[in-house]
Design goal:
This protein folds into 2 domains: 188 residues, no CATH class; 122 residues, Pdz3 Domain (Roll), CATH 2.30.42. It is 46% helix and 22% strand. The chain is built from 10 helices and 15 strands. The strands form 6 sheets. It has a 5-stranded antiparallel sheet with strand order 10-9-11-12-13. Strands 1-2 form a two-stranded antiparallel sheet. Strand 11 and strand 12 form a beta hairpin. Helix 2 packs across helix 5 and helix 5 packs across helix 8. The longest helix has 30 residues. The protein is elongated, with a radius of gyration of 28 Å. The relative contact order is 0.13. The mean pLDDT is 86.
Length: 419
Amino acid sequence: MAYALGVILFAVGILVSVCLHEAGHMYTAKAFGMKVTRYFVGFGPTLWSFRRGETEYGIKAIPAGGFVKIVGMTPAEDDVAEADQPRAFWRQKVWKRTIVLSAGSLTHFVLGFLLLWVALVGFGVAQQKPAAEVPAVVGTVSACVPATTTAPRPEKDGRCGAGSVAGPAKAAGLRAGDRITSIGGTPTPNVDSFMRVVRQTPAGPAEVTYVRGGQTRTATVALTPVQRIPLDAPADSTTTEKVSAIGIGPDLPVEMVRYGPIEGLGEATSATGTIFRGTFTALGKFPEKVPKLITALTGGERDPETPISVVGASRIGGEIVDRQGFQGAALLLSILASLNIFIGIFNLFPLLPLDGGHIAVVWFERVRSFIAARLGRPDPGSVDYNKLMPLTYAVVLVFGVISVLTIATDVVNPVRLFQ
């Protein structure tokens, strides 16, 4: 029940986001005096509608988005009444048309920011306590330890995979809940010192002192050599060094930190900037992710960084509510915020039929007219959209194929937040 509720909530959140996107187009168009005749949620047969002024508002049968009808989107439209010609979209100044076309993406950006602000102020964000302030208590004991940071999944079907070895701590009998007090005679009063001592201790047998059930015990653990990124390296570093590993995941308690309304503005701004940077990075790597989707669809392991569809995102929403309940609200809102920002950026790509493609055409016309006027030539006029249709169809086909591939992969081999 909780899973289904999460799926529905996330799907509704996406639908509302798309409808607000169209509302952004509508309200800016109205503000500039353009004529808007229709605003509908969904597609297909009309279930209910009403008219206010010159605009019909309503709901259609298929809740897969929404649309707005602005009169005269292109000069080729032949159904524009003579009285409406001055208010036609294509007759407006370039800057007005640019604002109307970009209003959908701007709406996504504002909505993403607001969702992050609500998450931070209303629910709080989960933060781990600093490693230097937490005792070195064992959280998890790994059955297998990867030899490098790029090694494949260390354990599959109960066996250690290629490029990994049996976990030293597990082999020595250490368990979750044990508090490590020293390794090789060096004290480990907290998680930070524990991680550093493990790495600095030479690979091979080392005496580990720990407390279990109030009793101090010792065990000889055969630390294994591995390649890891230095602890103090930048977050985006890929440089590795040879260190020792023990196969223990320390227990780092998580606490919910809530921000005040004013403080939350700064935190939400910072989080929004982080998502923007991450989105551009992800889009730059998109071509290399498509083959990985095909691999996942045909039975291979799903890379968690591959694209996900609305179906996959909704399933993640279901997982969050099912596993975390109300405590997962902040995570749910942050994922929805990330999705809004992604849609906003993607929609500005200069490709038809995206809004960014229409903006590109508008400015191409303006630049072409400017150059013609400078050269004393006649204004070449508007772009013939009919000539752009083959390119538009090609873009739609490519996006359609990728969408189908992503949806199919999300059904067969979905990304999971919780294992």
